[in-house]
Amino acid sequence: MTLLNENSINHMTSNVTFALKEDVGSGDITAQLIPDDHEITASVISRESAVLCGQDWVNEVFRQLGHNVTLEWLAKDGDLLEPNKPFLTLKGHARTILTGERTALNFIQTLSYTATISRKYTEDVSATNLTILDTRKTLPGLRSAQKYAVTVGGAQNHRFGLYDAFLIKENHIMAAGSITNAVEMAKKIAPGKTIEVETENLEEVALAVEAGADIIMLDNFTYDDMATAVTRFKGKVKFEASGNMDQEKLHLVAKTGVDYVSIGALTKHVQAIDLSLRVHK
């Protein structure tokens, strides 16, 4: 199972704090209909097959709410959930469980979808050498959470933000004057950082390789041109395919020999797994 790093844990805590403030506000007035000393048992199910993701966010929801609620997880992040089979049992303070229900489920349903679609893409190319990457096309404030979910699904993370690697795109190249200038400046600004250059044709690929880029992004290349780029410069750089990628294109991309394919849909096409909390008593 993928573990949260310290940075992700800090983001997770802040995510939950904000989400609870957003939902609970000055207090859950509906929960006050229930006697304060009342305790219940409830379970959470998925109505569809899904890869579970978001346990730590759920645990943090009930930790921050502060009352005595025991969570028993019957599955862990990365496990495949079966429809209508409980994967979490909650016992304790009724008001707290019902107050935290929606915030907790919101995190699981979103992150589990990202993990589920990531698993589908990685399984599609499991017999190839192609690595599936995410992008920075994430929900504002939830990038760390979504990138964690991507890894739970078996895909890998591209750069986290604008600070940990260079991705020199068309506008950067125009502003810098050329691919060569842009790469040379990148090496001076942050020596040792990965330098990736987005290219639109084979001529630009050659310039980026000569300039010393580490990774070449082949943006909307034909499959033939992808294969040509790999054949000409194999061993000198890594190649990443990009541009409206979907499951139907993956095997054709894999045949070209590129190393990576970045898929924005992993995090930007946000959907929700259908979950339900059921109170038993």
Q: What characteristics describe this protein?
A:
281 residues; alpha/beta; Aldehyde Oxidoreductase, domain 3; TIM Barrel; four-stranded antiparallel sheet; 10 helices; 12 strands
Describe the structure.
The chain is of the alpha/beta class. It has two domains: 6-122 and 270-279, Alpha-Beta Complex (Aldehyde Oxidoreductase, domain 3), CATH 3.90.1170.20; 127-268, Alpha-Beta Barrel (TIM Barrel). Helices cover 44% and strands 19% of the residues. It contains ten helices and twelve strands. It has helices at 6-24, 55-65, 94-124, 143-152, 170-176, 179-189, 202-211, 223-233, 247-255, 265-268, and strands spanning 39-46, 50-51, 69-73, 80-81, 86-93, 131-133, 166-168, 195-199, 215-219, 238-242, 260-262, 275-279. The strands form three sheets. The chain has a six-stranded parallel β-sheet with strand order 6-11-10-9-8-7. Strands 3-5-1-12 form a four-stranded antiparallel β-sheet, covered by helices on one side. A two-stranded antiparallel sheet has the order 2-4. Strand 9 (215-219), helix 8 and strand 10 (238-242) form a beta-alpha-beta unit. The relative contact order is 0.15.
Instruction: Look up the CATH topology of the largest domain.
Output: TIM Barrel
The tally of beta strands, per DSSP, is 12
Residue windows where pLDDT falls under 50 for at least 5 positions = none
Terminal CA distance reads 33 Å
Reported for the largest beta sheet, the result is:
6 strands, parallel
Task: Return Rg in Å.
Answer: 23 Å
CATH superfamily of the largest domain: Aldolase class I
The CATH architecture term of the largest domain is Alpha-Beta Barrel
Encode the helix/strand succession as letters.
HEEHEEEHEHEHHEHEHEHEHE
